[in-house]
Amino acid sequence: MAVEPVVYGASERPPRGDYSRARDDYTCPQNWSAYTEADHDTYRRLYERQSALLPGLAAQAFVDALPALGVRDRIPRFDEINERLRPATGWEIVAVPGLIPERPFFDLLAHRRFPVTDWIRTPQEFDYIVEPDVFHDLFGHVPLLFNPVFADYVQRYGQGGLKAHDLGAGELLSRLYWYTIEFGLIREPQGLRAYGAGILSSSGELRHSVTSPRARRIALDLVRCMRTRYKIDDYQATYFVIDSFEQLFDMTAPDFTPIYDTVRALGELPADASIASDSPITLG
Ligand code: HBI
Ligand code: FE
């Protein structure tokens, strides 16, 4: 095989994808004709359930861009999405067999190429799946790549990731990915909304993260975020809240090298920590 598969977290299972199909940069062709009718049906049902949950919970930019994914009754061809995405923000999506290692992941983002897993979960995994599949990657991540400011943030994140990787700070920076791109909340004029892909593609966590009084929500602060461990197999204990995508973009302009030093000096925090410097976000 060209490349090694990757396993994240505590998972003992081998990864699902077939990495023998991958090129050296971990991308592969989307084997669209290999999807079965059952695969398309799983996508259609996931899309239907999830899109019905969005009103009042999803960020406006996400709701506005979702139709750009195109067909909702079958798994889209990535090429069809790219015909709309390229002219919108200069991004394109590329197929990958599943999770890929940090370095090639950051490299794709830095070049405005978003890796999308091409296989779909089984009907038994309809409500929950540990690894990202094509539904999570497309429905969760791709709509906001149509937003110019957010799209620029993701590229800058990738550029920072390459640097972090060389500095041995990849794990610290991956927490920023987790708490923004995957599980971020945003304050909008109408109230708190979700923009993170892990929330937007989850049936349970969407309502929980935005409305539950039991969830901890604090204003996004780089050092606080990078100190905080995260959960990969449960709802997040803490959500970080932004006021705009410009804030994310501006926040990632400076060189992070001194920030990593600060984060290391202060030490990590459990996922459910509360500290004196937190700025809690209250509901309503
Ligand atoms: N690979 N396909 C894929 N998708 C991800 O979200 C992803 C990955 N590899 C690495 C990775 N994420 C993490 O290191 C991020 O937290 C940065
Ligand atoms: Fe994701």
From TrEMBL:
Pathway: Amino-acid degradation; L-phenylalanine degradation; acetoacetate and fumarate from L-phenylalanine: step 1/6. Keywords: Iron, Metal-binding, Monooxygenase, Oxidoreductase, Phenylalanine catabolism. It catalyses: (6R)-L-erythro-5,6,7,8-tetrahydrobiopterin + L-phenylalanine + O2 = (4aS,6R)-4a-hydroxy-L-erythro-5,6,7,8-tetrahydrobiopterin + L-tyrosine. Its cofactor is Fe(2+). Residues 1-22 are annotated as: Disordered. Residues 13-22 have a biased composition (Basic and acidic residues). PANTHER family: AROMATIC AMINO ACID HYDROXYLASE (PTHR11473), PHENYLALANINE-4-HYDROXYLASE (PTHR11473:SF24). This is Phenylalanine-4-hydroxylase. It comes from Hydrogenophaga borbori.
